[in-house]
Design a protein that fits this description.
- This protein has about 100 residues and is α+β, with helices and mostly antiparallel strands.
- The protein has a domain at about 10-70.
- It has helices at about 35-45, 75-85, and strands at about 10-20, 20-30, 50-55, 70.
- The chain has a 4-stranded antiparallel beta sheet with strand order 3-1-2-4.
- A hairpin with a 2-residue loop joins strand 1 and strand 2 (about 20-30).
- The longest helix is centred in the middle third of the chain and has 11 residues, at about 35-45.
């Protein structure tokens, strides 16, 4: 893991997809989405494939139990959405993870 000694980084919601569709999501810190994807790779939680990232607002830091882990179940997305205030941004109208 890299140690940083400068400005606080953003938290990123990273959604991963591959040939078989959605592979999971992770919450990591980074300066930008590319840096966050690199951090996920360094942590061993990037399953490969394509990545889509959304920067979380600074006041919406994820709970400790949600940080630096790969979540692969669709229910995890619903649970995370509820934990972050249930605004439905991570879940589609059908309750599926947004890709």
């Amino acid at each position: 893991m890299r140690v940083r000694f400068f400005a606080e980084q953003h938290w990123w919601y990273l959604s991963f997809s591959g040939d078989e569709g959605w592979c999971g999501f992770a919450l990591v810190q980074g300066d930008d989405v590319l840096d966050a994807a690199r951090e996920a790779h360094a942590l061993g939680i990037n399953p490969g494939g394509e990545v889509f990232g959304v920067s979380l607002p600074p006041e919406r830091k994820p709970p400790l139990e949600w940080r630096h882990r790969l979540f692969t179940q669709k229910q995890d997305v619903k649970d995370f959405d509820s934990a972050m205030g249930g605004r439905g941004r991570m879940v589609s109208e059908k309750g599926e993870p947004r890709e």
